[in-house]
Amino acid sequence: MQIHDLIGVGFGPSNIALAIALDEKRQKGHFVDALFIEKQPGFVWHRNMLLDNAHMQISFLKDLATLRNPSSRFTFLNYLHEKQRLQDFINLKTFFPSRHEFNDYLGWAAAQFEDRCAYGEAVFEVVPEMKGNEVSLLRVRSRDANGAVRERLARNLVVSVGGVANIPARFQPLLDDGRVFHSSTYLEAIARHPGADRIAIVGAGQSAAEIFMDLQSHPTKPQVDLIMRARSIKPSDDSPFVNEIFNTDFTDFVFNRSVNERAELLEEFWHTNYAAPDLELIQQIFNVFYRQRVAGSTRHSFLRRHEVSAVRAAQDGIHLSLHDLNTGARHDKAYDAVVLATGYARDAHRTLLAPLASYLGDFSVDRDYRVQGTPALRPGIFLQGACETSHGLSDTLLSVTAIRSDEIGQALLNATPRHTAQAPQAPAAERPAHAAPVV
């Protein structure tokens, strides 16, 4: 069984950027044998939120490579050049491509590493491979769509699994009811309810705003209620000085602060990334409600300062008990579908790495995103997109992706130095889950 220098869990933007950084290091004579494992059958980025007219909130210059290496062949500009759209994009006069186009860019980059990615396999466990009292290697266990389990060995691991849908406690008993679903499954889920006349959206962020605009223009003309605890929809602050918190050098500033100072920074700038849609989108929503007032229509409702106090499933719909926090009034309303635009949790790595928990302490990481394990843990375990509390708000965004991938790549080279000439030529071997351990 081949022992990989690195196995990456997930093949979204973070690990694609890492694959690019490692490829560019290989061209300079430094080799890391890396394999990535992705649960989706092929690359797609937030497929259920690829809405018409949805655009990126981050400049295209914060792509997979530009901030690290503007001359890389994996920049968004080179993608446009190869697709013969560069001049037309320039004529758009925008820094913010459509989400559809950026998904195509990411897929274009991912396609150049298909020989280094095992698609259609979900990693469900990482277990220690012991040599004496030390963890010498990591055994990565994955399951394909047919239920077959595969095992691979790695000297290092990078976990880039993204966020997991955050479901408020009141809605969790209804997770098996198809009428209640998270925004991460929006397009697929709403297609199963073509006759839905009454739809609720719970949330106050970009996803909630985009879904509201998508539904209000739907040909079936459903009635849509936008429900949030906030008094108003607050725009994201993307002014120049505030945007400096997403600069790569700000990562050093955050990391070198005390725990309390980091928490204060996260609180101060929280609305730059959470519950804060683009101003243009907010203006579009305001215009929808204004036009309703002109027409004397009540098709859509903006239920601000409302809290969902109880949820009940019935034959005639999902009943939400709504508490008006301004007046104290309570009322019950039934919906054919409820969309939870309630954000994401970033702790899936803890479940995945549970068999290694005794070696990982509190999962704190060093500056290079490596979990600070016990001395008995020899392999390096790196986290991407799960270090917001230590590295800042940019950790879950594209802003630092190109630079972070280079930092992790260099840490991997330092841990497993090997010249390109030493690179193995044989393809990665696999073995059934029941085979004898390899040490």
User: What characteristic shape results from the CA principal axes?
Assistant: globular
**What structural category do the secondary elements indicate?**
alpha/beta
Q: How much is the radius of gyration in Å?
A: 23 Å
CATH fold-type name of the largest domain: FAD/NAD(P)-binding domain
What share of the residues does DSSP label as strand, in percent? 15-25%
Q: How does CATH name the architecture of the largest domain?
A: 3-Layer(bba) Sandwich
Structure described in brief:
The protein is of the alpha/beta class and 439 residues long. Helices cover 28% and strands 23% of the residues.
Describe the protein.
This protein is an alpha/beta fold and about 450 residues long. The protein folds into two domains: about 5-165 and about 345-430, FAD/NAD(P)-binding domain; about 165-235 and about 275-340, FAD/NAD(P)-binding domain. It is about 30% helix and about 25% strand. The chain contains 14 helices and 20 strands. The strands form five sheets. Strands 1, 5, 6, 7 and 20 form a five-stranded mixed β-sheet that branches. The protein has a five-stranded parallel β-sheet with strand order 4-3-2-8-19, covered by helices on one side. The chain has a five-stranded parallel β-sheet with strand order 10-17-11-12-13. Strand 14 and strand 15 (about 315-325) form a beta hairpin. The radius of gyration is 23 Å and the shape is globular. The model is unreliable at about 425-439 (pLDDT under 50). Its cofactor is FAD. This is Lysine N6-hydroxylase/L-ornithine N5-oxygenase. Pathway: Siderophore biosynthesis. Pfam families: Lys_Orn_oxgnase.
